[in-house]
Amino acid sequence: MKNQKSENFITKFARYYTPAVCGGALVLAVLPPIVRMIMGESAMWGDWITRALTFLVISCPCALVISIPLSFFAGIGCASANGVLVKGSNYLEALSDTQYIVFDKTGTLTKGVFEVTGIYPANGFDESTIVGLASYAECASNHPISISLKKYFGKEIKRDSVSDIEEIAGHGVSAVVNGHKVYAGNIKLMHKENITVDAEHNEGTVVYVSCDGVYAGCIVISDVIKDNSKKAISSLKKSGIDKTVMLTGDAEASANYIAKETGVSAVRAQLLPQDKLSVVQDIRSEYGPTMFVGDGINDAPVLAGADVGGAMGSGADAAIEAADVVFMRPSLTAIAHVLDLAKATLLVAWQNVVFAIAVKILIMVLGLMGYASMWWAVFGDSGVSILCILNSVRILRRN
């Protein structure tokens, strides 16, 4: 759908309009004098040739052929001034038609940095103790969750204090820490080891910790939400985009938490990178023109396959290359701004077209009747062109 309907329209219009008016001017210069001669009247060649020339000047399509391109140039310029790179006028028009926006989670709605966001001790254990137990148990792992946990612990881990480390696939790890049997992992691990958990949490990735068969508490590790994500989704709703969805490979509970915090209307969780493109295509076939916003190298196929692909300027080079629109500033609120700008640009473009055609038709009629002089013809050509230019320049003043 990455074509420009309005520019295609004016190109086709000018293709037929220009030869038609040239032919009309020729007929106006020749036919009436011949008819008058046949009827026995004075031919008045000079008068009709003057009318034909006036008609030809009036019908010059300058204002028509510059009205739409100039409007889109102004729209792209305004977007650039506000930190949004639009790679072509056809993408700006596609933005004006967008009905649904799909976001990748990590790095787009969130910072892509895992941090400890909550610690919930239980059964007499304190926060520092359960963080220490979990960090020692996870000391041999290079998983991002383990790395963020050890970073939060912030102390040197003495490897001689840990033994019998065992990774339990899909569950977590077990280890002996200073002579105590420690389990650290998801809720499935606690159930597997028959350890009673006081309360389950679903606001992020949760590491449950037990020591010698006793539940010690849990640590919540989350991909931190960007400060402006919630505001951006709210701005989109105010702009008329109430259909937003988040795509992520995270578990359902964690994804739902992020969606609730940001205000996203729908979630598709536990997706593999190759699943995202098919999801976007399904959404587009159901809801219409769709924009996808992402930043990772795995998002490149989806960015290229969506009606409009938007990439964050801080993202991977492959994503920026595949995208149609690049948001150079970290704030997601620019999405709502560029959507409003695209609609305003299209409105101005059609204002120019309607105004130019209406004025030309009016002066053409007056010229045919002999009431419009060459000065009126000059206004109908150059004057209308200048007014269309000034109307287009208004777009540059949008903030």
Give me the secondary-structure topology.
Elements: H1 5-38, H2 45-58, H3 62-81, E1 84-86, H4 89-96, E2 100-104, H5 105-109, E3 110-121, H6 127-137, H7 144-153, E4 162-168, E5 172-177, E6 180-185, H8 187-192, E7 205-211, E8 214-225, H9 229-238, E9 244-247, H10 252-262, E10 266-268, H11 275-287, E11 290-294, H12 300-305, E12 308-312, H13 317-322, E13 325-327, H14 333-368, H15 374-393
Parallel strand pairs: 2-9, 2-11, 9-10, 11-12, 12-13
Antiparallel strand pairs: 1-13, 3-8, 4-5, 5-6, 6-7, 7-8
Helix pairs in contact: 1-2, 1-3, 2-14, 2-15, 3-14, 3-15, 4-14, 6-7, 9-14, 14-15
At a glance:
The chain is α/β, with parallel strands linked by helices and 399 residues long. It contains 15 helices and 13 strands.
